[in-house]
TrEMBL record:
Coiled coil: none annotated. This is ATP-binding cassette domain-containing protein. It comes from Polyangium spumosum. Belongs to the ABC transporter superfamily. The keyword NADP does not apply. It holds the Pfam family ABC_tran. Its main location: membrane. GO terms for molecular function: ABC-type amino acid transporter activity; ATP binding; ATP hydrolysis activity. Residues 22-256 form the ABC transporter domain. Keywords: Amino-acid transport, ATP-binding, Cell membrane, Membrane, Nucleotide-binding, Transport. The lineage of its organism: Bacteria, Pseudomonadati, Myxococcota, Polyangia, Polyangiales.
């Protein structure tokens, strides 16, 4: 049966009692012969800030993309709010309206203003009336400290400001969680702090987040849980401070000695 052939209605409302917001169960991903994810099990509770660290090529982005099913796992299941979203009957477009993702490249539409970039999905995907969409977009621009840039085009904004618009765009959908994939890696070092500051604020507001990052100070300070990946497996995980101060695995020690 092809995906979406018999779409299941998405259950609105809260996470069922006792269920994690996200559960990854035995996730494997092959790209041809390349075995990129080699059995990932992971739970994410509401309000958690999960930080994922690891060397380049260890599978962090692929893991993130499996959470919102931008990549379909080759094996294993992804549960979201108690529903198996690897079930072919699940309408992934609908599921994705409940998960935000922010990438390293800001992916803003260059011909639209900051405001227009945010209202687009609200109007086209959520079918929100224009006035209401503008109101919500302005709210989220204020949230990231960019009310005064609403009418500017991306080309008129710094990299840090563009990334904050991209975050505001994700927030405007009022998702259950937001996935961040190395969102500060392409930024001029002096612009990194303003983006991390926004993410820190979101965390303090209780936003559920999965953050792939090389910013170890942020990971330590803001993360509620840390995962270290190497060659497609979770080598070590735990409370960030504990993993940083007392890594148990030789691979974790080697990685941390290179980045700290
Ligand atoms: P990370 O984000 O940790 O750097 P990735 O998840 O991007 O790692 O990539 C893990 C491995 O999978 C790399 O070897 C990468 O080249 C490979 N890979 C990622 N995406 C694809 C794809 N779409 N097709 C083929 N190989 C891919
Ligand atoms: Mg990556």
């Amino acid at each position: 049966m092809s995906r979406d052939a018999h779409a299941l209605a998405w259950p609105a409302g809260p996470v069922p009692a006792g269920a994690p917001l996200i559960r990854l169960e035995g996730i494997h991903k092959w790209f041809g012969d390349l075995h990129v994810l080699r059995g990932i099990d992971l739970d994410l509770a509401q309000g958690q800030v999960l930080v994922v660290i690891g060397t380049s090529g260890s599978g962090k982005s692929t893991l993130l993309r499996c959470i919102d099913m931008l990549e379909e796992p080759s094996a294993g299941r992804v549960w979201f709010k108690g529903r198996d979203i690897t079930d072919v009957r699940v309408n992934l477009n609908e599921v994705r309206t409940h998960m935000g993702i922010v990438f390293q490249a800001f992916n803003l539409f260059p011909h639209k203003t900051a405001l227009g970039n945010i209202t687009l999905a609200l109007e086209k995907v959520l079918h929100m009336p224009r006035a209401q969409a503008r109101e919500r977009a302005m709210e989220e621009l204020a949230h990231v400290g960019l009310s005064h840039k609403a009418d500017n085009h991306p080309g008129q904004l710094s990299g840090g400001q563009q990334q904050r618009v991209a975050i505001a765009r994700a927030l405007a959908m009022r998702p259950d969680l937001i996935l961040f994939d190395e969102v500060t890696s392409a930024l001029d070092p002096k612009l990194v702090a303003e983006v991390l500051e926004v993410m820190k604020r979101l965390a303090s507001e209780g936003t559920t987040m999965v953050v792939v990052t090389h910013e170890m100070a942020f990971a330590r300070e803001v993360g509620t849980h840390l995962v270290f990946m190497d060659e497609g497996v979770i080598v070590e995980q735990g409370e960030p401070k504990v993993v940083f101060d007392d890594p148990q695995d030789e691979r974790t020690r080697r990685f941390l000695s290179q980045v700290l």
